[in-house]
Amino acid sequence: MLWMLAQTTCMVAMMAAARHLSIGGMPTHEVAFFRGFFGLLVMLPWLVATLRHNPHILHPPDWKLVWFRNTMSVVGILFWFMALGGIPISDVVAVQFTHPLFVVIGAALILRERVGLWRWSAVAVGAVGALIIIRPGYLPADPLVYAVLFSAMMNGGVQLITKHISGRVSGAVMVFYMNLLIMPVTLPFAWRDWVWPSPGELPWVLAVGLFGTLAHVFLARAMRTADASLVGPVDFIRLPIASLFGWILFSEFSDLSTWIGALIIVAAAIVIARREARLAAHKYSHST
Question: What's the pTM value of the predicted model, to 2 decimals?
Answer without folding.
Answer: 0.74
